[in-house]
């Protein structure tokens, strides 16, 4: 474990344990009954997320000599959401709040983020696909679908998207406060990026209209197409990622998922 920057920031008397996460730069720190969550080089708009009540409270920020920034957040006792919890009105409500936040949108623009369009997503997915995957019929069928529909999924409605609304990234505190954490993949894009993933992965199709009405939108044909488009793209992305990691079980899962989707 990379303790040096942790002890530099907090001192030797604290105990540290890895907190998982995709970057591996997140830790829990504990001293007696005090516990905080530390992260190195987290998203620069963490302060806005904290102010909006979307992530646990930001306590302080420190810049290290090498330019790295360490953030400390309140550590909350609670649990990750389970797949069945994704039906909740609190989930729809928090996602709506995020998508409607002008503060988040302004902040992402200020740090140089540009809106991501369907063509950008398609280019990125195709570029990263392993040559072995390109030999598979279902993968080519998915790419053909994305190419054919990319002009039909255009929308002027762009928002801040989390881009990984997996149930593991939702934290429910013991006080029943809901948070969405791990914002490393945040982007300015079509809200269908988040909504599509959430509905396709967690909500039965017959319950989509109800969930969408909780979110405050209407389930139109155009929204359905946009959701499907981004879920196909995300599935190809995950397929490529697991192929690279040589995780055969996960590769098989996403190939089967694409078959079902198309």
From TrEMBL:
Gene3D superfamilies: 3.90.1200.10. The keyword Cell cycle does not apply. Keywords: Transferase. It comes from the Bacteria. Residues 19-213 form the Aminoglycoside phosphotransferase domain. The keyword Chloroplast does not apply. One of its GO terms (molecular function) is transferase activity. This is Phosphotransferase. It comes from Bacillus timonensis.
């Amino acid at each position: 474990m990379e303790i040096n920057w942790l002890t530099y920031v907090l001192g030797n008397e604290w105990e540290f344990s890895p907190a998982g996460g995709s970057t591996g730069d997140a830790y829990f720190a504990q001293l007696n009954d005090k516990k905080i969550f530390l992260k190195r080089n987290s998203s620069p708009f963490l302060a806005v997320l904290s102010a909006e009540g979307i992530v646990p409270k930001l306590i302080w920020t420190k810049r290290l000599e090498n330019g790295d920034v360490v953030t400390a957040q309140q550590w909350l006792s609670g649990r990750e959401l389970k797949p069945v919890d994704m039906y909740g009105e609190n989930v729809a409500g928090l996602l709506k709040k995020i998508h409607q936040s002008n503060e988040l949108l302004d902040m992402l623009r200020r740090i140089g983020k540009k809106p991501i369009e369907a063509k950008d997503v398609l280019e990125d997915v195709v570029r990263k696909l392993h040559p072995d995957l390109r030999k598979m019929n279902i993968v080519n069928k998915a790419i053909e679908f994305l190419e054919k529909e990319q002009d039909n999924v255009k929308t002027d409605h762009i928002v801040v998207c989390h881009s990984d609304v997996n149930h593991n990234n939702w934290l429910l505190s013991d006080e029943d406060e809901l948070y969405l954490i791990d914002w490393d993949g945040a982007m300015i894009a079509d809200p269908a990026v988040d909504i599509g993933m959430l509905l396709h992965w967690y909500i039965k199709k017959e319950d989509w209209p109800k969930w969408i009405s909780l979110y405050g939108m209407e389930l139109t044909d155009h929204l359905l197409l946009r959701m499907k488009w981004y879920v196909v793209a995300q599935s190809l992305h995950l397929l490529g990622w697991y192929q690279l990691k040589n995780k055969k079980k996960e590769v098989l899962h996403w190939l089967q998922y694409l078959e079902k989707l198309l």
